[in-house]
Design goal:
The structure is a homotetramer. The first copy, chain A, has a 6-stranded antiparallel beta sheet with strand order 1-2-4-5-6-3. Chain A has a single domain, classed as Thiol Ester Dehydrase, Chain A, CATH 3.10.129. Chain A is of the alpha+beta class. The two termini of chain A are about 15 Å apart. Chains in contact: A-B, A-C, A-D, B-C, B-D, C-D. At the A-B interface, α1, α2, α3 and β3 of A face α1, α2, α3 and β3 of B. β3 of chain A pairs antiparallel with β3 of chain B, so a sheet runs across the interface.
């Protein structure tokens, strides 16, 4: 399964990310980038980007990165620390693998604005299922 | 500021939660409950509820609970462990304060389905600003 | 393998816990309690109990609780939030299972002083190996 | 307060780190390194380095790094993911600041063996008190 196909799969099949204006813009082995242009619906009650929107953007990059080897990986644990708000512009999450074993994988992700300022830091761990991602890909093609 | 007003504020002013079909259904001092009826747009690429949707529901309850004393509280760190998926029905997140100091507060939240099964466990910490939540309330009334 | 044996195994075989004055005082299925009497060597540079000592006490209870079913379980991820210091007296950590599957288990633990005040809250996840704890028990009997 | 003094302070005043054979070998602004030579007392019941020993080493580096600006900083939240065990040799934890504000600081730390293999990844957040670290330094000089 090629990287282009994995990227296309996530952009087509991840309904929650699509509903919230998020796109995977790059996938390599153990790496992925997700982006969103901030909209009024991304804000919280204090008028800045919602922690759930930041988390979801990082989680989306994490999902693409952790599935980049073609084996289905599911998030079991993740955490986010939030340093700075944002009201407009593009936010970019980049997820990188820091450890890989047959059943578990560990990733970290940064979320930055277009000026390169760090808004949040994310860590995530996946459990790898004995299922090829391709089986989902074909399913969603039908 | 009364609990009814805090509940109404979050349901009116939290745009990301509204955009994703989430509602605060109860606020008490140090406690809040948020609910969502699962829709197709809550799903991930594997066809089960997105980790970002689970996180956002818990984070929404956490925000209402941590602001329930009327002082503005902002999330600085949170984590989620996911145990079980869901494809339909109502999900309920309940957040409870476990520690409170003048500047910091710590909360835990559970996410359950209608059968009461635990889908995910969430922990969050807030930093309390020297600002009354009421100042935001009035602003969003304008 | 009986609970008494599991408790005895951890108190005999966990060298780091012994070196730091920690004892398992109860093990039940999915639960364990660990205790330590604070000593000068448990303190940090600020003169209060070290975060590493709090973490280790909770982690020790977590290890006993997560191995209480007799299958070897190894910690893959854990977190601690610290609310309050302590300089003397007994500290008690209680770990409880909140989710269990064939390969993964999730636990939370509290750390309290003798007055019942919450000093810290801990969460941990284990990966279950296809190895009986008994194989370690026998090994350390030799 | 000079970096040499901060390093000396932590090596003299952190009783729990000393009791467990840990030393700060470098402090720079927003960075510190801690080391330990594995001993039998660092092991857990499964015969590999204890999660509490890994955590404490990273926490010690984190404490020195977060206090490197000379203002007292206390850990409020931290997490560790463990990827690999170790039975002997030297372990090295390096903590780096990733975000800094007047009241809060966020750090990440790696723990590696002498071959450079990543054993664990650590994240931590501190709350900065309005107290100079020097006040502790002088106190412990008496």
């Amino acid at each position: 399964m090629e990287m282009n196909n994995i990227q296309a799969f996530f952009n087509r099949a991840d309904a929650f990310a699509s509903h919230n204006g998020m796109t995977i813009t790059e996938v390599r082995e153990g790496f992925a980038r997700a982006e969103m242009d901030l909209q009024p619906y991304h804000m919280n009650g204090a008028g800045t980007v919602h922690g759930g929107a930041l988390f979801t953007l990082a989680d989306f990059a994490f999902a693409a990165a952790s599935n980049s080897r073609g084996q289905l990986a599911l998030s079991i644990n993740s955490s986010i620390s939030i340093f700075k708000g944002a009201k407009e512009g593009k936010l970019i999450a980049e997820a990188r693998e820091i450890s890989n074993s047959p059943k578990l994988g560990s990733f970290e992700a940064s979320i930055r604005n277009e000026a390169g300022q760090l808004l949040a830091s994310f860590q995530g761990m996946v459990y790898r299922k004995s299922v090829a991602l391709e089986s989902l890909l074909n399913e969603s093609d039908r």
